[in-house]
Amino acid sequence: MEKISTPLTEMLGMKYPMIIAPMFLVSNAEMLKAAIRSGITAAVPALNYRTDKDFREAIHEIRAEADGPMGVNLIVNKSNIRMMEQLKTCVELKVDFIITSLGSPRKVIELCKPAGIKVFCDVVDVHYAKICEDLGADAVIAVNKEAGGHAGPTPATELVPALVEACSIPVISAGGVGNGYQWKEKLELGAVGISMGSPFIATEEAGVSQDYKQACVDYGAEDIVMTTKLSGTPCTVINTPYMQDIGTQQNWLETFLNKNKKLKKFAKMLTAYKGMKMLEKAAMSATYKTVWCAGPSIEYVKSIRPIKAVVDEMVEQLTTSKVEVKE
Ligand SMILES: Cc1cc2nc3c(=O)[nH]c(=O)nc-3n(C[C@H](O)[C@H](O)[C@H](O)COP(=O)(O)O)c2cc1C
């Protein structure tokens, strides 16, 4: 199929304006290689690798086996104590782009600019987008209300045009896309491309259990709820019977600790640690404790497929505007 050219495809040197969004526990080297071979790109959270050695090996493997742009996601707030080590590895091994989330991209931009590595920053409003632009970001990623994970407060129809109007750097849209028609819609709003996560959980290459992938086929947009149980910050999960059982709100003790000035920092760290462990167990193994992070865009997932099949179908839909919706 023909190339769909936008400032994003030109900046990274790829065929179609799509990034497989970084997903904690889900993204892996197989997904990045498949994305590149399908004419798009993907970013993997550095956090998905326990050691710097594993992280380096994955970058080398992707580089050796797929010829195209690859990205890394760095959590840039204080919770990521390995941030500097991860950033230095990205610079040394010259990844193509970095997606920063949950904090200031200042340090990342400082080190990446001279190395020619592009920096895209997750933002949820104009104020923060301007800060990123002033710091020298190459693009902002507009995380909207329909996004999986930590969603923003504003729908794409408002957020993308507002950012396009306010910023002079390109805007990439993240959230709520599950077919080619919605992809096209985001481009028509002024985005130079999309960053799409949830629908790619149900792919052969994704690094999670078959049950988690199948859940993204079986459940739909109405089954997505927000929980504060995982990190303290609202996060989207599938409302499985187990989730209904434990509830989506922090209990009184967690709420009390999180409000207490002295204990707040430790309570937050503990909640985040417990949440990560819960997610990890549920994502990797068969357990009745099904805590599965996904966004409403799983509505459009009808089967578990290879990444290339998902991309090809979406490109076809984007170019012909013919889209089927899940029954
Ligand atoms: C399972 C899952 C894990 C995620 N993990 C991360 C992460 O580690 N870092 C990050 O910046 N964003 C993360 N996100 C957010 C995505 O990068 C992206 O913004 C989101 O998936 C876009 O919405 P969509 O799922 O509707 O496509 C995650 C999202 C999901 C669904």
From TrEMBL:
The keyword Transcription does not apply. It comes from the Bacteria. It holds the Pfam family NMO. Keywords: Dioxygenase, Flavoprotein, FMN, Monooxygenase, Oxidoreductase. The keyword Iron does not apply. SUPFAM superfamilies: Inosine monophosphate dehydrogenase (IMPDH). One of its GO terms (molecular function) is nitronate monooxygenase activity. PANTHER family: BLR1330 PROTEIN, NITRONATE MONOOXYGENASE-RELATED. Belongs to the nitronate monooxygenase family. NMO class I subfamily. This is 2-nitropropane dioxygenase. It comes from Flammeovirga pacifica.
